[in-house]
Amino acid sequence: MHGCFWHQHDSCKAAERPTSNIDYWNKKLDRNVERDNSNRKKLEDMDWKVLVVWECQIKNREELKQALTEFLSAE
After folding, report:
1. Per-residue pLDDT tens over the stretch 15-74
2. In this structure, is residue 7 part of a structural domain?
3. Of 18, 27, 32, 72, which one has the greatest count of Cβ atoms within 10 A?
4. What is the reported pTM?
5. Nearest to 52 by CA among 19, 62, 41, 24
6. How many domains does the chain have?
């Protein structure tokens, strides 16, 4: 489960970066994304299947249920 702001969900309004203290926030948020990508790759290298669920996705339970069902039933 990723928070849209903290993990910078592409094209999500909740992921807009602050307009003050820009250097701090850019470094902080960019590092979060880098760490997420690195961790996902490590898990995939160990043959784990990875599904990222975004904060905004939990608002629509039916779509979330469908995504989880598809992920869990995939081989």
Report:
1. 999 999 999 999 999 999 999 999 999 999 999 999 999 999 999 999 999 999 999 998
2. no
3. 32
4. 0.87
5. 41
6. 1
